[in-house]
Amino acid sequence: MTKKKIGILGASGYTGADAVRLLARHPNAEITALTANTHAGKAMSEVFPHFFMLDLPKLVEWEKVDWTRLDAAFCGLPHGTTQEIIAAVLKANPRIKILDMSADFRLRNKGSYAQWYGHEHRALELQDEAVYGLTELYREKVTAARLVACPGCYPTAVLLALVPLAKAKLIDVDEIIIDAKSGVTGAGRGLKQNTLFSEAGEGLSPYSIGSHRHSAEIEQEIGAAAGSAVTVNFTPHLIPMARGEFCTSYVKLNGATPDDLRAELEKAYANEPFVYVTKKGVLPQTQNVRGSNYVQIGVVADRIKNRAIVLSTLDNLVKGSAGQAIQNMNLMFGLPETTGLEQIALFP
């Protein structure tokens, strides 16, 4: 197959950089355009020195790219700035495939975006065609899509752990408590006081308590699986490591046992290349998936009667962002889903 020509919007951010890292060795991809308006004119290795060995195009302003020459574009821009840019790219080249790693097209309810993101959506005409890109749940729709809204890192970890259980009616979806922790790359690369080493190191900080924007995605997808509106208790934390994510979900059982939950998850993911359910007594750990596109899920009985604890972990920049986007790209181009994504986790 001829290599697909790829552009990356927002290549100077962490998700954009991880897309570069993975696509640089993808056998069916050629990185043709990299954008970063604040770093326009620079070599990628000036912004990310670990790319010193790669022959990459220079960073340019997104308006300078000839989008008609590209087959796919990955968008690593912040929410809010993405909508109009993606609309412009699709107008320039209606045949291009878009892998959006921002939050701008994830919510199906058009009125929900303004509620969670503080302003009206600026490309509502594209919202109806956007496919929620949690690959394991929407594989067929992703395959046929032009615009894929790749999920957030927290929703990916939580939904892979809970959606099969909600769908099978094994848990009470009105009694879900999620305790989530992410490495500081989840906060982006911009200069922020709370992510300075002296402030984020040697400590653990909750944020956006009761109001984190990823709650909307989690509720949307668990609700769809359960067939009813859902509200979850979701609290994220910033943990002093660069990458990685761990979600601990406390659930009330609907006449099921923890072993039933594990069996349902094993059945759901028996043929999935990247999702692994641990054996009884084996606990997921962030270091088991660091740098990889793999997810580990475990189930533990709570000492409280009729309750269980579901554990899930992934790399927030890979399966939680760039890796999942590439997994979706593979499907959209009819490639084997695992192409370019079978790296083993970095350990230690």
From TrEMBL:
GO terms for CC? cytoplasm
PROSITE patterns per UniProt: ARGC
Q: What is its EC number?
A: 1.2.1.38
Q: Name the reaction it catalyses.
A: N-acetyl-L-glutamate 5-semialdehyde + phosphate + NADP(+) = N-acetyl-L-glutamyl 5-phosphate + NADPH + H(+)
GO biological process annotation, one example: L-arginine biosynthetic process
Q: Name one GO molecular function term.
A: NADP+ binding
Q: Name one Pfam family in it.
A: Semialdhyde_dh
Query: SUPFAM superfamilies given for it?
Result: Glyceraldehyde-3-phosphate dehydrogenase-like, C-terminal domain (SSF55347), NAD(P)-binding Rossmann-fold domains (SSF51735)
Q: Does the keyword Calcium apply?
A: no
Signal peptide residues are none
Which residues participate directly in catalysis?
153
The top EC class is: oxidoreductase
The pathway noted for it is: Amino-acid biosynthesis; L-arginine biosynthesis; N(2)-acetyl-L-ornithine from L-glutamate: step 3/4
Member of which family? Belongs to the NAGSA dehydrogenase family. Type 1 subfamily.
> What name does UniProt use for this protein?
N-acetyl-gamma-glutamyl-phosphate reductase
